[in-house]
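User: Hi! I'm working on a homework problem where we have to compare a predicted structure to a textbook description. Could you give me the structure for the chain below?
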Amino acid sequence: MVGVSGVGLTLREAFQGCIGEGIEYLSQLQTGTDLLLEPGVDDWAGKLGPKALELVAALSERRMQPERALSWCRVTKLTDGGEVWLPADICLRRPPAQREFAPPFPLSIGSAAGPSRDAAALHGLLELIERDAASLWWRGGQLPRSLPPQPEAGIVAANLLQKLRHGVSTPRRTWLLDITTDIGVPCIAAVSCRADGSGFAFGLAARPTLEAAVRSAIVEMCQLELADNVVATKRSERGDEALNRQDRIHLQRAAIDADQCRLLQPVEECAAHLPLHATDASAIFGLIVQRLEKLGYDTFCIDLTRQRFAVPVVRVIAPGLQLEPSEIVTGRLQDAIVRTGGGATYTGGIPLI
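Assistant: Happy to help. Predicted structure tokens:
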């Protein structure tokens, strides 16, 4: 059983998002036409950078049968357009009997459907950057910053909240956190709570512009707020035994006192944002890939578009960026924890996602 959802300011937008998420999931499923390379891929290791090799080593240690070699999937290295191979189980959703290891993070992260291949690839890459920023903030303990004094972002937030909150009987307090990392792509966490600080909800977004990140984060935050009602209804109708793992994480997170958690209070400084002046998805994607390369992160791409759906679907992988959630802790997250003492100091180890 697989469930998908969509969110938008109109029913049409929400429906499109829902269908897109469904096609994205189905397109990730391994088919008979997917070319996999069987054991003996050592010759290709020389084409992988150090962070990709670290990822491959970590995945190899997770093999369910240590004597069983990994299967590999052909991907494109975006910095030079060359062909390389990465473990198949992080590229495709494979039948359980064929998996060499259980993926240590959701395969949905970095995968996206879109109206064009470039749009899908950009969306997938932005999601990787968003989750990396979220992890360095929530688990790494990097304090969020205030938004720069740009009236456009504030106007976007005020107008959108007025539209979304219109007619709400129980008001919520809402504010914005800038969790942009050294990558420089604007990344925003929109947070809200009840008047007494309970009921913490959040939304995340990395976008080419600050205004777009603010808008997307607020809409996602409101989607999470709706989960409050869903979980409450489940408990009232069927009791705690009706709650699934995500429901329980939601309850734990919602119990955080937003007024007392330091990770939810911005420091008075501004992050540096990467100037992404292009408007074309392909150009923006290229600029971000170049930025990641400059920081030492290779980016890989696999086109998962299926003829039966005819909707572009792309999976982007950037070894070294920290995914959230993920069972693998990268050096990037480890360094943040060493510098700050870690986010668990403020959250008690409660998961964000």
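For your comparison, note the following. The mean pLDDT is 93. The beta strands are 36-37, 72-77, 82-87, 111-113, 173-178, 187-193, 201-206, 300-303, 313-317. Good luck with the assignment!
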